[in-house]
Amino acid sequence: MRRRLVAGNWKMFGSNARNQLLLEGLASRAGGLEGVSCAVCVPFPYLHQAQSVLSESGVAWGAQNASQWPEGAYTGEVAVPMLADFGCQYVIVGHSERRSLFHEDDQLVGAKAKAVLEHGMTPIVCVGESLQEREAGVTESVVSRQLDAVIAEIGTEGLDKSVVAYEPVWAIGTGKTATPDEAQAVHLFLRHAVSARNADVGERLTMLYGGSVKAANAQSLFGMDDIDGGLIGGASLKLDEFMAICEAAIA
Ligand code: 13P
Protein backbone atom coordinates (compact mmCIF):
# COMPACT_ATOMS: atom_id res chain seq x y z
CA MET A 1 0.00 0.00 0.00
CA ARG A 2 1.16 3.54 -0.73
CA ARG A 3 2.33 5.76 2.08
CA ARG A 4 -0.30 8.24 3.28
CA LEU A 5 0.82 11.77 4.13
CA VAL A 6 -0.83 14.95 5.31
CA ALA A 7 1.43 18.00 5.15
CA GLY A 8 0.56 21.47 6.41
CA ASN A 9 1.73 24.46 4.42
CA TRP A 10 1.67 27.38 6.83
CA LYS A 11 2.52 29.86 4.04
CA MET A 12 3.53 33.28 5.48
CA PHE A 13 1.65 32.93 8.75
CA GLY A 14 2.82 32.45 12.33
CA SER A 15 4.57 33.96 15.32
CA ASN A 16 6.69 32.43 18.05
CA ALA A 17 3.82 32.39 20.50
CA ARG A 18 1.15 31.01 18.13
CA ASN A 19 3.46 28.40 16.63
CA GLN A 20 4.47 27.09 20.02
CA LEU A 21 0.90 26.13 20.92
CA LEU A 22 0.25 24.58 17.53
CA LEU A 23 3.54 22.64 17.42
CA GLU A 24 3.15 21.34 20.97
CA GLY A 25 -0.39 20.21 20.17
CA LEU A 26 0.81 18.43 17.04
CA ALA A 27 3.69 16.80 18.88
CA SER A 28 1.36 15.31 21.44
CA ARG A 29 -1.53 14.38 19.14
CA ALA A 30 -0.30 13.80 15.57
CA GLY A 31 2.97 11.95 16.09
CA GLY A 32 1.38 8.78 17.36
CA LEU A 33 -1.12 8.31 14.53
CA GLU A 34 -0.73 5.00 12.76
CA GLY A 35 -1.33 4.66 9.06
CA VAL A 36 -0.57 8.28 8.15
CA SER A 37 2.51 10.50 8.36
CA CYS A 38 2.03 14.13 9.35
CA ALA A 39 4.30 17.05 8.54
CA VAL A 40 4.34 20.85 8.67
CA CYS A 41 6.15 23.15 6.26
CA VAL A 42 6.83 26.35 8.18
CA PRO A 43 8.34 29.75 7.29
CA PHE A 44 12.17 29.70 7.37
CA PRO A 45 12.59 31.67 10.62
CA TYR A 46 10.57 29.06 12.52
CA LEU A 47 12.48 25.97 11.39
CA HIS A 48 14.50 25.93 14.58
CA GLN A 49 11.33 26.15 16.65
CA ALA A 50 9.74 23.33 14.65
CA GLN A 51 12.85 21.22 15.07
CA SER A 52 13.05 21.75 18.81
CA VAL A 53 9.38 20.99 19.47
CA LEU A 54 8.84 18.19 16.93
CA SER A 55 12.09 16.21 17.27
CA GLU A 56 11.29 12.72 18.53
CA SER A 57 7.54 13.42 18.17
CA GLY A 58 6.94 11.47 14.97
CA VAL A 59 5.73 14.62 13.19
CA ALA A 60 8.07 15.75 10.40
CA TRP A 61 8.79 19.33 9.38
CA GLY A 62 10.09 21.13 6.35
CA ALA A 63 10.27 24.31 4.31
CA GLN A 64 8.10 25.89 1.62
CA ASN A 65 10.80 26.79 -0.89
CA ALA A 66 14.57 26.70 -1.37
CA SER A 67 17.19 27.99 -3.76
CA GLN A 68 18.40 25.74 -6.54
CA TRP A 69 21.97 26.83 -5.68
CA PRO A 70 23.95 25.24 -2.83
CA GLU A 71 25.49 28.54 -1.68
CA GLY A 72 26.69 31.84 -3.08
CA ALA A 73 26.05 35.55 -3.41
CA TYR A 74 22.26 35.31 -3.71
CA THR A 75 20.93 37.90 -1.29
CA GLY A 76 17.77 36.82 0.49
CA GLU A 77 17.84 33.22 -0.72
CA VAL A 78 17.93 30.09 1.46
CA ALA A 79 19.98 27.08 0.35
CA VAL A 80 18.94 23.46 0.65
CA PRO A 81 21.98 22.49 2.82
CA MET A 82 20.82 25.15 5.31
CA LEU A 83 17.48 23.39 5.53
CA ALA A 84 19.31 20.13 6.20
CA ASP A 85 20.99 21.86 9.16
CA PHE A 86 17.55 22.23 10.71
CA GLY A 87 16.54 18.61 10.23
CA CYS A 88 13.99 19.25 7.49
CA GLN A 89 12.52 16.19 5.84
CA TYR A 90 10.34 17.95 3.25
CA VAL A 91 10.65 20.95 0.95
CA ILE A 92 7.71 22.17 -1.11
CA VAL A 93 8.78 23.11 -4.65
CA GLY A 94 6.75 24.72 -7.40
CA HIS A 95 3.82 25.86 -5.29
CA SER A 96 1.46 27.84 -7.51
CA GLU A 97 2.06 30.95 -5.39
CA ARG A 98 5.79 30.67 -6.20
CA ARG A 99 5.01 30.08 -9.86
CA SER A 100 2.55 32.94 -10.25
CA LEU A 101 3.78 35.58 -7.79
CA PHE A 102 7.52 34.93 -8.02
CA HIS A 103 7.72 33.85 -11.65
CA GLU A 104 9.16 30.37 -11.08
CA ASP A 105 9.07 28.39 -14.29
CA ASP A 106 8.89 24.64 -14.87
CA GLN A 107 12.62 24.27 -15.39
CA LEU A 108 13.46 26.11 -12.15
CA VAL A 109 11.02 23.94 -10.21
CA GLY A 110 12.81 20.87 -11.60
CA ALA A 111 16.20 22.28 -10.56
CA LYS A 112 14.90 22.93 -7.04
CA ALA A 113 13.53 19.39 -6.76
CA LYS A 114 16.94 18.09 -7.83
CA ALA A 115 18.74 20.19 -5.21
CA VAL A 116 16.40 18.93 -2.47
CA LEU A 117 17.00 15.28 -3.44
CA GLU A 118 20.75 15.79 -3.56
CA HIS A 119 20.66 16.66 0.12
CA GLY A 120 18.58 13.67 1.14
CA MET A 121 15.27 15.43 1.64
CA THR A 122 11.90 14.85 -0.01
CA PRO A 123 10.57 17.41 -2.47
CA ILE A 124 6.82 17.92 -2.46
CA VAL A 125 6.40 18.83 -6.13
CA CYS A 126 3.29 20.92 -6.78
CA VAL A 127 1.42 20.96 -10.06
CA GLY A 128 -1.94 22.42 -10.97
CA GLU A 129 -3.92 24.36 -13.53
CA SER A 130 -5.49 27.83 -13.31
CA LEU A 131 -9.23 28.39 -13.69
CA GLN A 132 -8.66 29.74 -17.19
CA GLU A 133 -6.72 26.60 -18.13
CA ARG A 134 -9.40 24.32 -16.68
CA GLU A 135 -12.10 26.15 -18.58
CA ALA A 136 -10.05 25.91 -21.76
CA GLY A 137 -9.87 22.13 -21.28
CA VAL A 138 -6.07 22.02 -21.01
CA THR A 139 -5.73 20.73 -17.42
CA GLU A 140 -4.01 17.50 -18.48
CA SER A 141 -1.52 19.17 -20.78
CA VAL A 142 -0.63 21.75 -18.10
CA VAL A 143 -0.02 19.26 -15.30
CA SER A 144 1.88 16.86 -17.54
CA ARG A 145 4.08 19.71 -18.82
CA GLN A 146 4.82 20.71 -15.21
CA LEU A 147 5.59 17.14 -14.14
CA ASP A 148 7.64 16.34 -17.26
CA ALA A 149 9.92 19.30 -16.55
CA VAL A 150 10.63 17.90 -13.09
CA ILE A 151 11.18 14.37 -14.40
CA ALA A 152 13.62 15.83 -16.95
CA GLU A 153 15.76 16.99 -14.01
CA ILE A 154 15.38 14.16 -11.52
CA GLY A 155 14.35 11.15 -13.61
CA THR A 156 11.84 8.57 -12.43
CA GLU A 157 14.43 7.47 -9.81
CA GLY A 158 14.20 10.95 -8.30
CA LEU A 159 10.42 10.96 -8.55
CA ASP A 160 10.43 7.69 -6.62
CA LYS A 161 11.88 9.64 -3.66
CA SER A 162 9.47 12.56 -4.09
CA VAL A 163 5.86 13.37 -3.33
CA VAL A 164 3.59 15.00 -5.91
CA ALA A 165 0.85 17.43 -4.89
CA TYR A 166 -1.96 18.26 -7.29
CA GLU A 167 -3.25 21.69 -6.36
CA PRO A 168 -5.70 23.26 -8.80
CA VAL A 169 -4.98 26.98 -8.53
CA TRP A 170 -8.68 27.85 -8.54
CA ALA A 171 -9.19 25.79 -5.39
CA ILE A 172 -6.37 27.32 -3.33
CA GLY A 173 -7.55 29.58 -0.53
CA THR A 174 -10.87 30.10 -2.29
CA GLY A 175 -13.04 27.72 -0.30
CA LYS A 176 -13.83 26.10 -3.66
CA THR A 177 -12.62 22.49 -3.48
CA ALA A 178 -12.30 20.20 -6.47
CA THR A 179 -14.89 17.46 -6.13
CA PRO A 180 -13.42 14.08 -5.22
CA ASP A 181 -14.14 12.90 -8.77
CA GLU A 182 -12.45 15.93 -10.36
CA ALA A 183 -9.36 15.50 -8.16
CA GLN A 184 -9.25 11.73 -8.66
CA ALA A 185 -9.40 12.14 -12.45
CA VAL A 186 -6.26 14.31 -12.48
CA HIS A 187 -4.46 12.09 -9.96
CA LEU A 188 -5.20 9.04 -12.09
CA PHE A 189 -4.03 10.84 -15.22
CA LEU A 190 -0.74 11.80 -13.52
CA ARG A 191 -0.21 8.31 -12.11
CA HIS A 192 -0.73 6.81 -15.57
CA ALA A 193 1.75 9.29 -17.02
CA VAL A 194 4.36 8.22 -14.47
CA SER A 195 3.52 4.53 -14.85
CA ALA A 196 4.05 4.78 -18.60
CA ARG A 197 7.68 5.60 -17.82
CA ASN A 198 8.10 3.25 -14.88
CA ALA A 199 5.22 1.13 -13.63
CA ASP A 200 6.67 0.54 -10.16
CA VAL A 201 7.32 4.22 -9.54
CA GLY A 202 3.81 5.08 -10.72
CA GLU A 203 2.27 2.53 -8.38
CA ARG A 204 4.33 3.69 -5.37
CA LEU A 205 4.11 7.45 -5.87
CA THR A 206 2.40 9.28 -3.00
CA MET A 207 0.13 11.92 -4.49
CA LEU A 208 -1.49 14.61 -2.35
CA TYR A 209 -4.47 16.78 -3.17
CA GLY A 210 -4.38 20.42 -2.08
CA GLY A 211 -6.89 23.25 -2.31
CA SER A 212 -9.43 24.16 0.38
CA VAL A 213 -9.17 20.80 2.16
CA LYS A 214 -10.91 20.91 5.52
CA ALA A 215 -12.16 18.43 8.09
CA ALA A 216 -15.55 18.40 6.41
CA ASN A 217 -14.33 17.29 2.96
CA ALA A 218 -11.08 15.43 3.74
CA GLN A 219 -12.55 11.97 4.07
CA SER A 220 -14.33 12.02 0.71
CA LEU A 221 -11.18 13.27 -1.06
CA PHE A 222 -8.80 10.85 0.67
CA GLY A 223 -11.19 8.00 0.00
CA MET A 224 -10.45 8.20 -3.73
CA ASP A 225 -8.16 5.48 -5.09
CA ASP A 226 -5.32 7.71 -6.26
CA ILE A 227 -5.39 10.39 -3.55
CA ASP A 228 -2.92 9.46 -0.83
CA GLY A 229 -3.30 12.46 1.46
CA GLY A 230 -3.31 16.23 1.38
CA LEU A 231 -1.32 19.43 1.29
CA ILE A 232 -3.20 21.74 3.60
CA GLY A 233 -3.01 25.54 3.73
CA GLY A 234 -5.39 27.53 5.93
CA ALA A 235 -6.76 24.54 7.84
CA SER A 236 -3.24 23.52 8.94
CA LEU A 237 -3.10 26.59 11.20
CA LYS A 238 -5.93 25.26 13.39
CA LEU A 239 -4.93 22.32 15.56
CA ASP A 240 -8.27 20.54 15.83
CA GLU A 241 -9.05 21.02 12.15
CA PHE A 242 -5.62 19.78 11.05
CA MET A 243 -5.82 16.78 13.39
CA ALA A 244 -9.21 15.82 11.94
CA ILE A 245 -7.73 16.03 8.42
CA CYS A 246 -4.77 13.84 9.43
CA GLU A 247 -7.16 11.28 10.94
CA ALA A 248 -9.28 11.30 7.78
CA ALA A 249 -6.24 10.13 5.81
CA ILE A 250 -5.82 6.95 7.82
CA ALA A 251 -6.53 4.22 5.33
P1 13P B 1 -5.68 26.13 1.20
O1 13P B 1 -5.82 24.80 1.91
O2 13P B 1 -5.65 27.30 2.13
O3 13P B 1 -6.66 26.26 0.08
O4 13P B 1 -4.22 26.11 0.51
C1 13P B 1 -3.84 25.02 -0.22
C2 13P B 1 -2.39 25.13 -0.50
O5 13P B 1 -1.98 26.01 -1.24
C3 13P B 1 -1.48 24.20 0.17
O6 13P B 1 -0.21 24.28 -0.38
Description of the molecule:
The protein has 251 residues and is α/β, with parallel strands linked by helices. The protein has one domain (5-235): TIM Barrel (Alpha-Beta Barrel). It is built from eleven helices and eight strands. The chain has helices spanning 16-29, 47-54, 80-85, 96-101, 106-118, 131-135, 139-159, 180-197, 199-204, 215-222, 239-248, and strands at residues 5-9, 37-41, 60-63, 90-93, 122-127, 163-166, 206-210, 229-232. The chain has an eight-stranded parallel β-barrel with strand order 1-2-3-4-5-6-7-8, surrounded by six helices. β1 (5-9), α1 and β2 form a beta-alpha-beta unit. α5 runs parallel beside α7 (139-159). The chain is globular and about 45 Å long. It starts with a strand and ends with a helix. The site of 1,3-dihydroxyacetonephosphate has 14 residues, from β8. Residues 9, 95, 167, 172-173, 210-213, 231-235 line the site of 1,3-dihydroxyacetonephosphate.
